[in-house]
Amino acid sequence: MLGNVLVGQSGGPTSVINASLYGVVIESRNNKDKIGKVYGMVNGIEGFLKDNIIDLEKELDNKEALKTTPAAFLGSCRYKLPDNHNDYVYKKLFEKFKEMNIKHVLYIGGNDSMDTVNKLSQYAKINGNDITFNGIPKTIDNDLIITDHTPGFGSAAKYVATTVREISLDAQVYGTPSITIIEIMGRHAGWLTASSILARKFKNDNPTLIHLPEVYFNIEGFLKSIEEKLKEKKNIVVCVSEGIKDENGKFICEYNGDIEKDIFGHKNLTGCGKILEKIVKERLNIKTRSIELNVMQRCTVTNACLTDINEAVNSGRFGVKLSLNGETAKMICFNRIDNEKYMINYKYVDVGYVCNQEKLFPKNWIIGNNTDIHYDFINYVTPLIEGEVNIERKDGLPVFCYRK
Amino acid sequence: MLGNVLVGQSGGPTSVINASLYGVVIESRNNKDKIGKVYGMVNGIEGFLKDNIIDLEKELDNKEALKTTPAAFLGSCRYKLPDNHNDYVYKKLFEKFKEMNIKHVLYIGGNDSMDTVNKLSQYAKINGNDITFNGIPKTIDNDLIITDHTPGFGSAAKYVATTVREISLDAQVYGTPSITIIEIMGRHAGWLTASSILARKFKNDNPTLIHLPEVYFNIEGFLKSIEEKLKEKKNIVVCVSEGIKDENGKFICEYNGDIEKDIFGHKNLTGCGKILEKIVKERLNIKTRSIELNVMQRCTVTNACLTDINEAVNSGRFGVKLSLNGETAKMICFNRIDNEKYMINYKYVDVGYVCNQEKLFPKNWIIGNNTDIHYDFINYVTPLIEGEVNIERKDGLPVFCYRK
To answer: Phi-psi bin for A130: left (phi > 0), alpha (psi -120 to 50), beta?
Structure first.
């Protein structure tokens, strides 16, 4: 009897996380001689524990649209497995794997999801179980180590760059001075906020100031640079990461009172844009607007990136191949072999090595008194946002895949 | 010596206001035997008064990209002409028109801009001046009377419907209950917020509740309907217009303290989404997020609507034809002749009749205890969001037209 594949999605959604799922399903179907069924965990490992499981082949009548369906088709979770391998939950999980004849588990997610893959594979190793556990990376934050970049980042970066360019035009229609503050996702890593540099078309074009969480944010210095820049031009667009902090390590968004924490201990950051808007208005007495790009950064597929989608699909396929080769406890990663004419190949790395680590934006790419981005980053990121997707539409709107 | 055309843009920008400008330039060039130069006012009538004028043919080396360049290529203004025709500003304007040999003035804008067209044409009539003044409609709000719809509305509606559909998927990835509140532009008219209904794909799909400014918004009733709906599904998406008001006529966003007024006496509304988010969190103790679609509604061209762009171009062209026929004090309007297979023709109406009036969303299309939209509106709006644009791109990003 052929072993089955079990696949799940976990963590914050991206525009291309379903493209990776598509890759897993397709590659499993290409190996009908080695793989039985392809099951999906609904709401990740948490849903799986509650028997929330679907047969992906029965479910997916329109697989092509899955590639351009945002969010997580299978649903997601933010469930953290216990550190103690003697916890009852592991026993329960492996009993269920056995019951369902699962031979390969693939988990699509970011840092925290790789932690899940790592713990499950460790448990299997300790208990002499031959199920493979491999991780397919996904995060708009681009903060996983080893891999050149992560699926999901390119589409989000394309969204940010395009939208900042559009907003920059919108921001300069009136003859009067104005400040526009755009708040971009990224708790600790500034990759996405840095991508706003691509919106700048010529010297002195917007965005004028870019602030990443990797360097301290000084409010007085910020107000001073706005005043300086106002001497050169009337309409200034500023891009800030949601996670900017002051010299004392206090998040700017914390200036607004208390904030909640999610289950992994991350603070829920929103609102530094609004707080800076208030401060600029009060202190400089100038028309100021703040714009939060919000979840549109991770769910807009109408402006997603073809390179990103294709790489996401390939990650899913490579994850299946890897598993069939008997590899376990690995995360797929991208290795850039040529930048001139962009080319990558697919490798893998020990998931225990990558999980719970963060790849921050390189300090030497933060220039201009911590308000600008080095040209080397533009070279790095440009190939990652190229290529347009062709989305199926009906009555002018995109057609997405829904669970039955 | 041939008379010249003068064209300006005024009021809030849209994704297609430059398509109308493109139409004016193209049609003027098609009539080289009747029209000399095409001048553009930079920052509308206000910039014109400061001699801020450009020669549009010299300026536009890449006319095609102008059709898909968001915001106002010429810049905009919110300048209100005085009611008193004896005011010095009229004398000054008409002297400048004479000096520049202007025979036709075209003004692209919304309600307030039509007020400008009306006042200038009245002055000309009183003083026996034969310059023509005509208005080309533009507003994402769709609130101009007589015309079936306005250029700019279709693209904004397509953005709202697409984005609400994408956000609705994003909002339901976790297994836990949540409320997502999406704030959509529209001070008094709910057309754009109503368009969010198009995101709903099947019965019980999101958006679940839609609140327009045409009917009073009751906070207690709102909380009660959320509790009701939570019995049926876990993740609820609510779409609210920025301009929703309570029974006493107080804007919900005013619950947050004082707000400013702009020069036309409109209140600057933002933030009812954030205020409702706070109230829902406090009162229902449920995970709540608010999302402001902000200026992306009016400046996203990557998801603009081809029908809208074509109609905007045609409005500009028709404005020139009308002027050459000697018509003055008119606004272009659309007349829908067939809905089965959507078809419109271009007409015109006295600008004095349309200016300073608002077309609100019909009360009989607001159903479901003021939280839902009638199917007749879906029939009305669907043809207005159809057709995809092909945007010129370089390095993965859209190419726009910039003033030299």
So the answer is: alpha
Cβ(B135)–Cβ(B117) under 8 Å? Answer: yes
Count of CB pairs separated by less than 8 Å, A with B? 160
Q: Round to whole Å and give the CA distance between A110 and A142.
A: 9
Q: Which ipTM score applies to this complex? A: 0.95
Identify which of A71, A166, A291 has the shortest CB distance to residue B170. Answer: A71
- Strand, coil or helix: B394: strand
A256 touches chain B (CB under 8 A): no
Number of H helices, E strands in chain B: 14, 15
Cβ neighbours of residue A22 under 8 Å, at least 6 residues apart? A63, A66, A67, A313, A316
Strand order in the sheet with A178-184: A209-211, A235-241, A178-184, A287-292
Mutate to test the interface with B, among A51, A69, A167, A169 (most CBs of B within 10 A): A169
B43 and A174 within 8 Å at the Cβ level: the answer is yes
> In the predicted model, what is the mean pLDDT of residues B44-64?
91
**Which of B46, B170, B303 is opposite residue A70, by nearest beta carbon?**
B170
Q: Write the DSSP symbol of residue B261.
A: B
pLDDT along chain A (404 residues), means of 10: 96 94 96 97 97 92 88 94 95 97 97 95 96 97 97 98 98 95 96 98 95 97 97 97 95 70 51 90 93 97 95 98 98 93 96 93 97 97 96 95 88
pLDDT, tens digit, for every residue of B178-203? 999 999 999 899 999 999 999 999 99
pLDDT at residue B256 in the model: 64
How many Å is the Cα radius of gyration of chain A? 22
Nearest CA to A389 among A306, A309, A311, A328? A306
